[in-house]
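We modelled the chain as a single entity of 91 amino acids. Its sequence is:
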Amino acid sequence: MRKATVADEHPRRYFFTLESMMTQRPKPTSKSILRIFQSVIAAAVGIQSRKNLEEDFQEGNSAIPYIIAGAILTIVFVLVVYTVVQFVLSI
């Protein structure tokens, strides 16, 4: 008589094979530049919704475009503040 194993008790313990997981993986969706900047501005102001945040960083999407957009917007913000301060001090 053979001893029962875990595999005998749960024959369908593993639902996915590596091959099926690779074929069912969601494909990365590319976002438009405008959509990336809108998302970064909304996050910077603090009005980014949870739904949009999850869409932005769903599996397969890279954070690099958002980091670059954030850096660009930060530089623009600093330049605008500097320009306004220089203008006000020159009056």
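As a brief sanity check on the tokenised model: The CA atoms of residues 28 and 58 lie 8 Å apart. The helical segments are 6-9, 18-24, 33-45, 50-56, 64-90.
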